[in-house]
Structure formats: C-alpha cells, structure tokens
Design the sequence.
C-alpha cells in the first residue's frame, strides 16, 4: 500500500526541483520504510547539498526511516543557519580548500588554479575514480552531474548551477567563501603543480626570442616544468581577479 509524507525544500535546494514543486510543500508517496536520504534524492536533491533535515522540530540523519504523515524540512548550507555542529549533516569546512572536478569543467579548473586553489582535473576521469580520489584526499567534488552527487560514498560535493566558466568561477568563490583566500599565480594552470621562481638563465633555452628580450621574471611548474612569465596574459588574469574581488 502506498503511503505519503510531505517534504519542503529551502533555499538553493529548490534548484533541483521542477518549477511546479519549488518553494512549496511536496507530497512524496512511498511503500515500506525508505530512508530520508533515498526519498529526497528520488525527488531530485542530492545529499551533499543538504546541511540539515528536520521532522517536525527534531533534526534527523540521512538514515531516518520516514513514516506516513511526516512533514520533513530540508535545508542547504547557508550562513544564517545557526545550529550546533553535531546536528549538521555536512562535514566541517576544509582548512585548505581542495577540489576535484568532473570531465566537463576543465576551464573552471584552470581558473581556480589561477587563483591558487588545489584543483584536480583530467578529461578521462570516470565517476568512480573521482569519488575514490575525493574520499582519499578529502576533496570537494565540483560537477554538473547531479547523479554523481547522489552516490552514497560522496561526502563533499557541489552541483554547479551556472554553465559558463566565468560565472561558475564566481559561483564557487561565493559558495565556499573563497574571496579572502586567493593566492594568485601559485599553481600551474595546466597540471595543478606548485610554481617556483627561477632565474632567467635557468630557462633561457626554453624561451621564445621576444620573451628573452622583454622579461626577467620567471616561474616554473614543479610538476610539468611549464614556464610562466608576466606577459599580456598575466595582466588579463590580474584584471579578472580584480573583478572577482570587487
């Protein structure tokens, strides 16, 4: 026999719902005693985006078994959510932000690296490998794939609402409160390796003729060996960073 509970999703969690279900109570029909995690994900909301679930006035975990007639409120993470950390369902924020991005977000990875953030990306990662690395290295998964975030092994994850890299960058900066943590030109935009300063003489044989004449400051990636210098691309990135800060 089918029975029903009622869900209400708040804030950014409505992004996962069809328009006719947003900002309102949603009826959920079920059989047996499903876990609240499975029920809300069946409605479209992945668990890594959820910070708090309450049945009536009582907070519950993802393993709570729903009963007929229950009214279930589901909240995202937001700064005005004032509850004890023992109640929150998301892990505490990382001291040093670290990300792993799915195969659709290569341009975003380059931009986050430009700001100095640790971002793993490869265009041949599959979902299983992304989840395995994220758990092993305690990284946050950034993705455009909602299904990836519904995997029960995912601890930290965020679904990008925006589709263009420039807007995605601003979205990640705001969502993870990164604005005061920029360390530009610290990482290689190609491989994520850390950059080290090197003398002009050390890299002279690898420089284009014009660069040899016009530049004296260089950095080299400790991972892939790519050489960087403050050319026109550097000025363009500085302008992009300034816009983010403003």
Sequence:
């Amino acid at each position: 026999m089918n029975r029903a509970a009622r869900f209400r999703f708040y804030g950014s969690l409505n992004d996962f719902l069809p328009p006719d279900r947003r900002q309102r109570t949603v009826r959920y029909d079920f059989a047996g005693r499903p876990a609240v995690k499975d029920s809300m994900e069946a409605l479209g909301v992945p668990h890594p985006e959820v910070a708090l679930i309450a049945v009536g006035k009582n907070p519950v975990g993802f393993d709570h078994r729903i009963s007929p007639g229950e009214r279930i409120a589901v909240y995202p993470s937001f700064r005005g959510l004032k509850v004890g950390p023992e109640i929150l369902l998301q892990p505490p924020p990382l001291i040093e932000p670290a990300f792993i991005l799915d195969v659709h977000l290569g341009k975003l990875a380059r931009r986050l690296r430009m700001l100095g953030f640790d971002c793993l990306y490869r265009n041949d990662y599959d979902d299983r490998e992304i989840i395995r690395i994220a758990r092993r290295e305690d990284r946050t998964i950034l993705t455009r794939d909602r299904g990836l975030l519904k995997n029960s092994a995912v601890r930290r994850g965020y679904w990008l609402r925006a589709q263009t890299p420039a807007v995605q960058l601003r979205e990640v900066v705001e969502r993870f409160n990164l604005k005061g943590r920029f360390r530009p030109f610290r990482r290689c935009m190609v491989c994520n390796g850390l950059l080290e300063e090197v003398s002009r003489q050390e890299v002279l044989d690898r420089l284009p003729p014009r660069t040899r004449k016009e530049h004296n400051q260089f950095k080299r990636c400790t991972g892939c060996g790519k050489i960087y210098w403050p050319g026109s691309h550097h000025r363009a990135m500085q302008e992009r960073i300034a816009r983010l800060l403003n």
